[in-house]
Amino acid sequence: MTSSARTELQAKRSPLAELWLNVRRERALIALFDLGRQKSRELRAARLYAFGVFATYALAMALSRSADRQQLMQSYVTAALATLSWVVGALASLGSARALAEHTERDGLTALALQRGFSDGALLCARTLATAERIARLVGLPALLLVAVGLARGATLPWAFAIVPAILVYAGALGLALALLAQLSAELAPRHPRALLLALVLCPLLFSQAYSAIPSLPGLFSALLSRLLGAGAAL
């Protein structure tokens, strides 16, 4: 297709069609970078640990004999999300920070994307969103499966309808926060991105133990988890 024909075709597209095409291009770019990080050692460990968390809590739910089963299911889902956040999320973000730091302009995925007309800014955004989606899936999917187990064990549909959106919001927010920190660590310390990422998360946490006014990422997301899942506990 010649450049004039391409320009004429673009002119004939409606604004909605153009927007949809751009969304599809961005999604394809995110999927490309996500596929390129699937073989990371930390990501394989994160997937394995995520399955282990789900299996452990699902077994605990299946064996529970409490009179207030819904409250017990709620406590299991909350505890599982906390474990997934700071073990699975940590492994995935550390692996992503290293992968982002190892990225160079000569990277095959980057070269392919640049040939397709994507800008450097679009590539940076796609890498960050791919990392965020990956972490959100690893944290959120086991928790959603535990909600299904809770329903099978006697929890009510209103409880599930309240807690599922809360899990999606929480996992998405956590994934984005860790992805941004991973990207920042890779940019600032390409030789030691994981060490910087750990410092960015752990140093404020340690200071917050002595000075409660100092915020930390674990503290903020612990409060967010309690607030979001509180609606389900009330049903």
Word description of this protein:
By secondary structure, the protein is mainly alpha-helical. It has one domain (3-233). It has nine helices and no strands. The protein has helices at 3-12, 15-35, 41-63, 69-102, 108-115, 120-152, 157-188, 193-210, 217-233. Helix 4 runs antiparallel to helix 6 (120-152). The termini are far apart. The mean pLDDT is 80.
Give short descriptive properties of this protein.
mainly alpha, 235 residues, single chain, globular
Determine the number of helices (DSSP H or I, runs of at least 4 residues). 9
Strand content: under 5%
Overall structural class, as computed from helix and strand content, comes to: mainly alpha
Mean pLDDT: 80
- Low-pLDDT residue spans: none
Number of strands: 0
Integer-rounded radius of gyration? 21 Å
Query: How many domains would you count in the coordinates?
Result: 1
Topology pattern, helix = H, strand = E: HHHHHHHHH
Apparent shape: globular
Helix content: over 70%
Through-space gap between termini: 59 Å
Largest sheet: none
Tell me briefly what this model is.
With 235 residues, this protein is mainly alpha-helical. It has one domain.
What topology emerges from the helices and strands here?
Elements: H1 3-12, H2 15-35, H3 41-63, H4 69-102, H5 108-115, H6 120-152, H7 157-188, H8 193-210, H9 217-233
Helix pairs in contact: 2-6, 3-4, 3-6, 4-6, 4-7, 4-8, 4-9, 6-7, 7-8, 7-9
